[in-house]
Amino acid sequence: MHQCSLFILILLCVSVRDISGSWEEWWTYDGISGPGFWGLINPQWSMCNKGRRQSPVNIEPDKLLFDPWLRDIQFDKHKVSGVLQNTGQSLVFRVEKDSKHQVNISGGPLSYRYQFEEIYFHYGMEDNRGSEHQIDHHTFPGEIQLYGFNKELYHNMSEAQHKSQGIVGISLMVQVGEPTNTDFRLITSAFNKVTYRGSSFPIKHLPLSSLLPNTQQYLTYEGSTTHPGCWETAVWIIFNKPIYISKQEMYALRQLMQGSQLTPKAPLGNNARPVQPLHHRTVRTNINFNKQGLQGSNNCPDMYRNMHYTANLAVALADDIITDSSLNITTVTTDKEVTTSLPEIN
Ligand SMILES: *[C@@H]1O[C@H](CO)[C@@H](O)[C@H](O)[C@H]1NC(C)=O
Ligand SMILES: *[C@@H]1O[C@H](CO)[C@@H](O)[C@H](O)[C@H]1NC(C)=O
Ligand SMILES: *[C@@H]1O[C@H](CO)[C@@H](O)[C@H](O)[C@H]1NC(C)=O
Question: Which interval of the chain is the signal sequence (predicted)?
Answer without folding.
Answer: 1-21
